[in-house]
Amino acid sequence: MFQTLFPNVVDMKAEFIDAIWQTIYMTLASAFFAGILGLATGILLVITEEGGIAENKPLYGVIDKLVNLLRSVPFIILLAVISPLTILIVGTSVGTTAAIVPLVFGIFPFYARQIQTALLTVDRGVIEAAESVGSSPLEIIFRVYLREGLAEIIRTSTITVISLIGLTTMAGAIGSGGLGDIAISIGYARYENDITLAATLVILIMVFFVQIIGDILVKLVENHNEFKLETKTFLGIAASAAVILLLVFGLSNGKSADTNDSKTIVVGSTNTDYQVWKHIAKSNAAKKLNLHLKVKNITNGVQLNDATSQGSLDVNAFQSWSYMDTYNRQHKGTKLVALGTTYYEPMGLYSKKYSKPTEIPDGATIAIADNPSQAARGLLLLQSAGMIKLKSNFDYATGTVSDITENPHKYQFKQIDDTTGPRILNSVDAVIISNSVAFDGGLNVLKDSIYHETINKNTRYNINIIATAKKNKNNKEYKKIVKLFHSKEIQEYVGKKFDHTKVEVKKPVSYLK
Question: Which of 128, 187, 215, 327 is the most buried (most CB within 10 A)?
Answer without folding.
Answer: 327
